[in-house]
Amino acid sequence: MRPLALDIVVTRGDAVESRHRVHGVAVAIDGTLVGQAGDPWLITWWRSCAKFFQVMPLLESGRFDDLGWGAEELALACASHGGEPEHLAVVSRMLRDQGLEEGDLACGPHEPLSARGARLAREHGDRLTRLHNNCSGKHAAMLAAATAHGAATAGYERADHAVQRACTRAVGVWTGVPVEKLRGAIDGCGVVVYGLPLVHMAQAYARLGAAADKGNEIPTRLLAAVRTHPMLFGGTDRFDTVLLEETGGAVIAKVGAEGVHTVSIPSRGWGLCIKVEDGAQRAQHAAVLVALQQLAVLPPDLPPRLAEFLVKAVRNTRGEVVGHVAPADQAPADAAGFRHWVQ
């Protein structure tokens, strides 16, 4: 097991202005710890990283295929999408196929997560709707799951609904955490969110990737969907999409809110999970990349599109570069913290 150094710093001038502590763990399919930083047993909320497993009961029921859905719909069901026209079109189709409408989604509206999506919405004067919610694809799939369970679509987001109970069982199976030990709360989009240790989150992604690599039907379909539709899975210039494209689908990462990110490396049978302790997203992507570099999954010299996520410029309101967000060991050599006040 190798130690990982994942902390991210923010520099301004010649000083480290802020530091984000990052916990992380890489796990092999057999549960062996491959690498770790901080506390691999830290319990936190899995947020949107659970989406692959939340859609599994719908696939198992056959309802997904009965609706004539394919890889586009599956990529959206797993996505934290950018609210771009392409995303909205697929979610709208998913609702139409069920005879439903936007108001049937339990998630609320918010501004698109991608810069392109937000810009297009502003330029067109669009009213932001529940379709723009980054989780609207997951919600559209959950509405279909309600029908598959013979349950009402109303209230599908509640913990006692058949849809959420099925999702919880799937999360328990793949993480190896008994259902009764999973912590529960309400996610940002209104459905159940799961609390569990990082090591179990990473192991679920190790199992997912290994199962897909062996050709198991549902894991194979899930990863094939996001590999063939990376833009639907994230969006224009979004991290998960860029990582998929730049690695040719060899590395599948899934973002979660509040600094949690889970990654599958199918060819190695590894899963990785990181948690930025203070939840800062500005540290999240760099931490994932530096972990993958230290595990020798990614090379020291990244392609330009990924390198932009590893070291980001901090600019002032005039557009001048005044510092950087970077892994602690890649900060400018002369960047020291403020340790002593000079009298």
Structure explained in plain terms:
With 343 residues, the chain is α+β, with helices and mostly antiparallel strands. The protein has one domain (43-294). It contains 14 helices and 14 strands. The chain has helices at 51-54, 56-61, 63-66, 71-78, 85-97, 115-124, 136-148, 162-175, 198-213, 217-228, 230-233, 239-246, 281-294, 304-310, and strands spanning 2-3, 8-12, 15-20, 22-28, 33-37, 43-45, 183-186, 192-197, 252-256, 260-265, 270-276, 312-315, 321-327, 336-337. The strands form three sheets. It has a six-stranded mixed beta sheet with strand order 1-5-4-11-10-9. Strand 4 and strand 5 (33-37) form a beta hairpin. Helix 4 crosses helix 10 (217-228), helix 5 (85-97) runs parallel beside helix 7 and helix 9 (198-213) packs across helix 10. The longest helix has 16 residues, at 198-213. 51% of the residues are buried. The mean pLDDT is 96.
Number of separate domains: 1
Class based on secondary structure composition and strand pairing: alpha+beta
Question: How are helices and strands ordered from N to C?
Answer: EEEEEEHHHHHHHHEEHHHHEEEHHEEE
Task: Supply Rg.
Answer: 20 Å
Order of strands, widest sheet = 1-5-4-11-10-9
Say how many strands there are. Answer: 14
Distance between the termini: 46 Å
Our estimate of the beta-strand percent is: 15-25%
The largest sheet, given as strand count, sense and whether it forms a barrel, is: 6 strands, mixed
